[in-house]
Amino acid sequence: MDSRTTGALPEEFAVFYEREFAAVALIAGTTAGDRTVGEDIAQEALARANERWNDLATYDKPGAWVRRVAINLALDDRRRQGSRRRAVEQLGASTSPVSVARAGDPAVWEAVDALPPRQRSVVVLHYFEDRPVAEIADILDISVSATTSHLHKARTALAARLAEVRHD
Prior knowledge:
Elements: H1 10-32, H2 35-51, H3 53-56, H4 62-90, H5 106-113, H6 117-128, H7 133-140, H8 144-167
Helix pairs in contact: 1-2, 1-4, 1-6, 2-4, 4-7, 5-8, 6-8, 7-8
C-alpha cells in the first residue's frame, strides 16, 4: 500500500479535522458563494488531507495545504456554476443567487460576495482568520505582491461598495 493513501491515525487526524473544518468551510463557502457547497468542499479537502496525512503531518502548516485545496476546489466550482448559469440563461430560464447565511453585517457579506473569487479568498483569510499577507500568499500559492495587490483591490472595492450602501 502506498504511504500517501494509508490515511491518518484516527485520533491525530480527528483533532486536525475538528480544529480546521469550520474555518475551511467558511473560506470555501465564501469563495464558492454558497455555504452548503463550502461545507462539501471542506469535507472533500479534508478527505484529501486524510489520504495524504502521513506526509501532511510532517508539514509545518498542514492547514495551509487544506485551505489551498479547498480554495482551488471552490474556484473550480464557481467556474462550473458560471458555465451552468450561462447555459440556463441561454435557454431562457431564470436563475436566482444562493443566499449564504453568515454572522455579521449582511451588507459587508454582500460586498464581499461581489468581489472576484481570489479577492474573496484573500479577504476571508486576512480578516476572518487574521492571517498575515505572507501566509496567505503561501496558502494560495501566489506571490506576496500578488496577495497584496488582491487585498488592496478588495479593500478599495469594499470601501466603495459600503460607502454606496451607507448613502442609500
